[in-house]
Hints:
By secondary structure, the chain is α/β, with parallel strands linked by helices. The protein is built from six helices and eleven strands.
Amino acid sequence: MKSAREVRAEERGELLAKIEELGPWFHNYEIASNVWTNPSGRSPGIAYPVERWRLIEPLLPDVNGKTCLDVACSSGFFALKLKELGAAYVLGVDSGEQPKAIEQARFAATQLRLDVDFRVLSAYDLATLGRTFDIVLFMGLFYHLRHPLVALEAARSVSGGTMIFQTITTQHGDRVSEAVHNASNVRLHSSTLDKNEFPALHFVEGALDGDTSCWFVPNVQGVAAMLRSCCFTVDQMTFTNDHDVVARCVSRGPGAG
């Protein structure tokens, strides 16, 4: 964080104790000089989310003076970075398997002296905010949702411009095949449904790499198709590794400005 400040030894000890009290942290970032939230490197690792941010930042439009929403914000790193870039208002919401996430984010915001609003709110309930945002982040969430299209439609209702969407996928080969989805009518008994290129979600009944909070793994065609079905236009898709994509989308639905 650019705003990390120098602290005396006594205060540093107090900060470290508070970080331990609020743990475990999913995000590792510096909230004061040489004071990190996940220095042990427990999953997802010591370099997360800084490495993810390096991929996301170039996809963002000009943030200065904009309103921003970070859905499933965890301990707040991305929301805080948006505020650092000059956003007029940033809201981070989370309600999931990390029970102390919002408390962590509020603590970090206080230490970094960044005015960011953090609230406990489900992705399914975004429409209750009653407003739209210029920029929406929807990252690290899709595959944890039992009802993914409900959440995407909720995101569409509050998106007035750009949405940055990230998810894990099945192996994609750094490309999206658009040939199959162009069919206006799919026949049940045709071979179309059996093609690897057909948009698909794989349901995870048990655990995924030991994680029981994952419900679906889409193929990359499925990602594009579901975003389109929820009135998002995919402007750019970045293949971050062979099982992960980031899509920059533009809302063309009711929330669009």
